[in-house]
Amino acid sequence: MQKLLSGQMNIDDNVLYVPAGTYRAATVRVFDPANNAWSIFWIDSRYPPSTIDDPVVGGFQDRRGVFFSDDEWEGRQVRTRFIWHVDGPDSCRWEQALSPDGGLTWETNWYMNFERMAA
Question: What single DSSP character describes residue 55?
Fold first, then answer.
């Protein structure tokens, strides 16, 4: 992860190992101080580089961040939710869930664990 704009923005470059094969993706996060909210954009190397999904938008309270967006999955409208859990200064967890019913029920479909590495 690299901070930009004095910490108002950051970006990371990911290598993802999945059963279908390895691919790369980037996350761009931008903070809006007027609304006290972060917008998180996902850029996936499996799709054309000009394709950037709409961001999930939200923020942190204590050590938990919650972010939402409206999206499409397999031809149907869904609500997307990201939850960040900050476990300590060197580790955090992330999960993604989709809701086909506007947020009444959620199906978590992706987890990631992060740990800070020495430079």
Answer: P
Question: Do the beta carbons of residue 80 and residue 94 sit within 8 Å?
Answer: no
pLDDT tens figures, 10-37:
999 988 888 999 999 899 999 999 999 9
Q: Whole-prediction pTM value?
A: 0.84
Could you list the beta-strand ranges (E) of the chain. Answer: 2-4, 9-18, 21-32, 37-44, 56-61, 64-73, 76-88, 91-99, 107-115
- Please, what's the largest Cα pairwise distance for the chain? 44
User: Cα separations (Å) of 37 from 8, 29, 56, 66, 109?
Assistant: 11, 10, 10, 10, 24
d(CA 109, CA 98): 7
